[in-house]
Design goal:
This protein has eight helices and seven strands. The protein is globular, with a radius of gyration of 17 Å. The chain has a domain at 101-219: Alpha-Beta Complex (H-NOX domain). Strands 4-5-7-6 form a four-stranded antiparallel β-sheet, covered by helices on one side. It has a three-stranded antiparallel β-sheet with strand order 2-1-3. The protein is of the alpha+beta class. It has helices at residues 43-55, 59-65, 71-75, 85-97, 102-127, 136-139, 142-149, 178-192, and strands spanning 40-42, 82-84, 150-151, 154-161, 164-170, 199-203, 213-219.
Length: 220
């Protein structure tokens, strides 16, 4: 992922305390979800992931694991555009084949998360200094951040308690890869750690399937 975030010309209204109380669908309607097939993912997601693999000394092996029919397209990706589903799948499949541990995949996701949304989240943190920023500062505008990087797919954000949220991702075929699920957790940890002393992001047991996953985020 790369720092597409929210451009300077796009202003992001921060949620006020208490604004996020119920599940939020992509349409912002409580407790509903509309099935939306995954269509595209930002090329920067792939580019940042590849940069991370280079830093870890895994890039050359990654290249050998790419589907030959997709290798040229995946390696030619540059930030600023969109990648088709099969291209994103090919990238994540090769990452999976590397056999990266859950911990390393989590850390990879955190690094990519910083790359794509770090500047935006830092700006949100600064803007929210006087209004009592918490992880809900980000979760309250989750849909707008998500749609900057993903075209299609669906999700809900549920408030379990003042210090706990559940995010359920659906219509996302990348969830069939454990590497993606661990990186997904890591990217959320990276975005939210500015707003709490301690953050935990866990996959909810039994929630993972080929098209979705649910995670629990708790903090102090």
């Amino acid at each position: 992922m790369y720092a597409v975030g929210l451009g300077a010309s796009k202003k992001l209204a921060l949620p006020r305390a208490g604004d996020v109380e119920t599940s939020q669908s992509p349409l912002g309607t409580p407790n509903t979800r509309r099935s939306v097939p995954l269509r595209r993912i930002r090329t920067g997601v792939i580019c940042s992931g590849q940069a991370n693999l280079r830093a870890r000394g895994l890039f050359e092996r990654y290249k050998t694991l790419l589907d030959p029919g997709l290798r040229e397209t995946i390696l030619a990706a540059v930030p600023g555009g969109w990648s088709a589903v099969e291209v994103a799948m090919g990238h994540v499949a090769a990452c999976q084949e590397l056999g990266i541990s859950s911990k390393d995949a989590f850390e990879s996701g955190a690094m990519v998360g910083e790359d794509v949304n770090g500047v935006v989240v830092d700006t949100m943190a600064r803007l929210a200094v006087g209004v009592g920023a918490t992880p809900w500062t980000v979760l309250g505008v989750y849909g707008r951040l998500f749609r900057r990087l993903v075209d299609g797919s669906s999700f809900t954000v549920e408030r379990s308690s003042p210090n706990e949220a559940r995010i359920e991702l659906e219509d996302m075929p990348l969830c069939g890869f454990s590497f993606f699920r661990d990186a997904f957790r890591g990217s959320h940890h990276a975005a939210l750690r500015r707003f709490a002393t301690e953050i935990r992001v866990d996959e909810i047991q039994g929630s993972a399937h080929s098209d979705g996953v649910a995670i629990r985020i708790s903090w102090e």
